[in-house]
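Fold Annotation — chain and its backbone

Fields — amino acid sequence, structure tokens

___
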Amino acid sequence: MKTILNVIWLVLCGFWMFLGYLVAGLLLCVTVIGIPFGLAAFRIGVYALWPFGHRVVDRRDAGAPSCVGNVLWLVLAGWWLALGHITTGIALCITIIGIPLGIANFKLIPVSLMPFGKEIVSTDEQFAGW
């Protein structure tokens, strides 16, 4: 089932959101200081490309640097990417078939706003995030 949802997701919004994360990551990697932000954009972009079968968990070892990184991320790229998820989520929720995909898009908003201190793991892992 998750493969079917991923293929439908890829066609309707996953590819376009991936391109948004790719552009944000490339722009952020222009400077040496922005490289960690660009890598975070690439990591979330791959998750936005194929989200079903994965989930986001909090990292227990994340500290103050991740908080500072999240504030900078929010200002630099986070709100643009979250706006993309809101827009595509609303567009997907117009049809009955698109409602689960729209809800999945809304679930991507928190990680698009604050990616540092989070880890993307497979749902197949038994104790992911422990």
Remarks:
- DSSP finds five helices and two strands in the chain.
